[in-house]
Amino acid sequence: MIILILLYLSIVASLIWGRFFFFKLDAGTPGLAAITYDLAVAVQVVATLYYMLTVTQITLMVLVLASLVYASALFLFWWSIRTARSLDFAFSESVGTIVTKGPFSLVRHPFYTSYCMVWICSSFIFNSPVLWITLVYLVTFYVLSARKEEAVILHSDQAEQYKNYQKQVGMFLPRIMKWKRSNTEP
Questions:
Q1: Per-domain residue ranges for the chain?
Q2: pLDDT at position 171, please?
Q3: Tens digit of each residue's pLDDT (9 = 90 or more) over 76-90
Q4: 88 - beta bridge partners?
Q5: How far, in Å, are 63, 125, 127, 128 from residue 55 at the CA level?
Q6: In Å, how far are 18, 33, 115, 118, 154 from 11, measured between CA atoms?
Q7: According to the model, what pLDDT value does residue 154 have?
């Protein structure tokens, strides 16, 4: 359980770092959406840590699988950080550079994917109504944010390039068949 807790604390520290030092927070007026998002994340984090410290009936198999999911999410997050260099916050109305390499060649929104991996894993491990409710809110937030971000791009001078990118790369999950075909073609 110690490894799981340390991985989770590393994820939380990474998310906090990203929120304040990587994403441009002055890129729009977040308002109520950002406040409710931060609150849902805080509830998810505190509840998960509480359950990690109090629940004792977790099997070794669950601990190993959860550790793999957390480690994968942490890797995806930092790979995305390294690849992207900096991004506008989810509420931005500006279009920066479209990143299509690294994890962005697998999914269009690797940050959201990494977050979802963590929240979904925690919800499954501890099966708490609080975690499930915040999970539904957070996944909905990520889907709506991703759609809003993409709408901004699709109304910019980079729309055609982004449409081609959308056809090749899934929003949150890799398009395995397209990836397989593109890697087997000469």
A1: 2-181
A2: 94
A3: 999 999 998 756 545
A4: 24
A5: 12, 10, 11, 11
A6: 10, 22, 9, 8, 32
A7: 92
Q: What is the pLDDT of residues 91-120, one digit of tens each?
A: 556 666 788 899 999 999 999 999 999 999
The domain defined by 2-181 carries CATH number 1.20.1740.10: no
Cα–Cα distance measured from residue 164 to residue 167, given in angstroms and rounded to the nearest whole number: 5
Determine the pLDDT at residue 87.
Answer: 62
| Whole-number Cα distances in Å, 133 to 44, 54, 103 | 9, 20, 28
Ranges of residues in the chain whose predicted pLDDT is under 50: 27, 89
Cα separation, 160 vs 45, in Å, equals 39
Partners of residue 107 on adjacent β-strands? 170
Three-state secondary structure along the chain?
A: CHHHHHHHHHHHHHHHHHHHHHEECCCCCCHHHHHHHHHHHHHHHHHHHHHHHHCCCCCHHHHHHHHHHHHHHHHHHHHHHHHHCCEECCCCCCCCCCCCCHHHHCECCHHHHHHHHHHHHHHHHHCCHHHHHHHHHHHHHHHHHHHHHHHHHHCCCCHHHHHHHHHHCECCCCCHHHHHHHHHCC
CA distance 186 to 180: 12
**pTM (2 d.p.):** 0.86
